[in-house]
Amino acid sequence: MAFFTKQFVKLTGKWIPRPKTVSCYDAKRLAKDIEKESTVSETDVIAVLNAIPKVMTRYLAEGHSVKLDGIGSFYLNFECKKTGVDTPEKVSMDQVTNIKVQFRPAMKGGSMKGKFNNTLIADDIEWTYLPNTKADETDEDVPENEGGNTGGGTSNDDGGFAG
């Protein structure tokens, strides 16, 4: 079962539903559940998960994207200074203000009004209203990396999966 809250959007003056995360499962929990679903031990799953950031970093640095079937693809992207340059000859890495890893979720043909859907979203997901702890939640109260359509997420500092 998944949860949602109600959010007031000041820009439109309207209320919308917003996904609500109630907890975060770590790699150890993931490894335990994968062990139950496969013939691989929890220790081996943790070892694989710990290797993924190192291997993916190397692939991305070599100019490759990384596709994990059923999950999605990872690739590098730039944030650049707001002002471009006048000619292709003047384009340089000095214009780049940030290098980031982008994620594009794997998609499947859609059951939701003909649209394509992320493969990680269950077809039979059930949504339950979970009241906010705050009286009213506005769009300004919501952290950028929590729920909604902002994408991205957070990780621990070393990018690894502690076991």
Describe the structure in brief.
The protein has helices at 27-37, 42-61, and strands at residues 2-9, 14-20, 66-68, 72-80, 96-105, 107-108, 117-118, 127-129, 137-138. With 163 residues, it is of the alpha/beta class.
What portion of residues belong to β-strands?
25-35%
User: Structural class from helices and strands?
Assistant: alpha/beta
Radius of gyration: 20 Å
Number of strands: 9
Structure annotation, total helices: 2
Q: Report how far apart the termini are.
A: 27 Å
Q: Assign an overall shape.
A: flat
For the report, how would you describe the main beta sheet? 4 strands, mixed
Order of helices and strands: EEHHEEEEEEE
**How helix-rich are the residues, as a percent range?**
10-25%
Mean pLDDT: 83
- Low-pLDDT windows of residues: 142-163
Polypeptide structure, described:
- With 163 residues, the protein is of the alpha/beta class.
- It has two helices and nine strands, in the order ββααβββββββ.
- The strands form three sheets. Strands 1, 2, 8 and 9 form a four-stranded mixed β-sheet that branches. A three-stranded antiparallel β-sheet has the order 3-4-5.
- Strand 3 and strand 4 (72-80) form a beta hairpin.
- The longest helix is centred in the first third of the chain and has 20 residues, at 42-61.
- The chain starts with a strand and ends in a 25-residue tail after the last strand.
- Residues 142-163 have low confidence and may be disordered.
